[in-house]
Amino acid sequence: MASPPLTNHLKRIASRHELLECPSPIHLGALLYGYLSVAPGFSWISAALDAQFAGPAQARAWTRAYLSYGSELGLTRLIEAAVALLEDPARPAVVVGPDTPAMFIDVVVAALHAKRPANVLGESTIPWLYNFGVGAQAALDDYFPEIAPERRASLSRFETWLQSYYDAPGVPWQRILRAFEGPSEHAVRRFASLWDEHLSRVQRLVILLAAHHRVGKEPWAGSDRTDTSLSPADWSAAPPALPSMLKVQDCPCRAFLNQTPKFMRKGRS
After folding, report:
1. Residues whose CB is less than 8 angstroms from the CB of residue 27 and which lie 6 or more positions away in sequence, other chains included
2. Residue 15: which residues within 8 A CB-CB, separation 6 or more?
3. Cα 184 from Cα 163, distance rounded (Å)
4. Which of 35, 77, 31, 38 lies closest to 55 in space, CA to CA?
5. pTM to 2 decimals?
6. Residues 6+ apart with CB under 8 A from 232
7. I need a labelling partner for 90 at 20 to 30 A (CA). Which of 33, 117, 230, 237 fits?
8. Terminal-to-terminal C-alpha distance of the chain
9. What is the pLDDT of residue 18?
10. How far apart, in whole angstroms, are the C-alpha atoms of residue 123 and residue 182?
């Protein structure tokens, strides 16, 4: 029986072809949590790893590995143990259900709004949040390839928006927030508020573009960017294909407009 795709991700982390933010067994735990949030059929691996690492009863395997071995050796030992478990031919194949999982950002933001971040985040830090997202995206690539590219593109547009917002071109989103907002819970909450702000601005942008399209204007020219509530960051994060998408009857922009409350639908009856 072939090894599950999670095995390949772990081996690539071990060989540094896939990178964690702040590599350590604790942050590998964050990646595993993210992966299991999309592919819960692998949940057995948490208890199986716990059985292989001695330590405080309240701690999971990744914390025990860190306490016993530190960051570098602990990460190596944890990966070796996880790969051995996943490659065990006696393990039954994992089947992932057909239900489309929520985007990891939506899950995190909902937990923060509910004032229950611990329901999702093992620790409220930017590195943990980032690695959780890496794991969730890896599981999407493995088991939901039909939606994985758009989820990746959505995060990329947010990253582009953040780069303009903080005047930090080319810098990954997690490093922007770590540098400007700090490493801990404040930065995680700032991540959530910035995500909400980004979405609200993109929604206004979609409405503006749709209004321009209806009257035959080209909104991408600088002279037409007359909505002062939209910043250069908002325009830079716009999906490049949006103008042509507006011409397609079943495009996502039209779906959004159909769901938008009437008071937000500029120019609509």
Report:
1. 20, 21, 127, 128, 131
2. none
3. 20
4. 77
5. 0.79
6. 164
7. 33
8. 59
9. 87
10. 14
């190596």: which residue's tokens?
A: 76
Instruction: Report how far residue 57's alpha carbon sits from residue 77's, in angstroms, rounded to the nearest whole number.
Output: 19
Q: In the numeric block, which tokens belong to residue 67?
A: 């306490």
Low-confidence spans in the chain with pLDDT less than 50:
215, 220-226, 241, 243-269
Domains in the chain: boundaries: 5-146, 161-264
**Confidence (pLDDT) at 203:** 75
Q: Could you report the per-residue pLDDT of 175-202, keeping only the tens digit for each?
A: 999 999 998 899 999 999 999 998 888 7
Rounded Cα–Cα distance for residues 236 and 233 (Å): 5
Structure tokens, 87: 């490659």
DSSP letters along the chain, please?
-PPPHHHHHHHHHHTTSS--SS-SHHHHHHHHHHHHHH-GGGTHHHHHHHTTS-S-TTS-HHHHHHHHHHHHHHHHHHHHHHHHHHT-TTSPPP---SSPPPPHHHHHHHHHHTT-GGGT-SS-SHHHHHHHHHHHHHHHHHH-TTTHHHHHHHHHHHHHHHHHHTT-TT--HHHHHHHHH-SSHHHHHHHHHHHHHHHHHHHHHHHHHHHHHHTT--TTSGGG---TTS-HHHHHTS-TTHHHHTTSTT-HHHHHHHHS-GGG-TT--
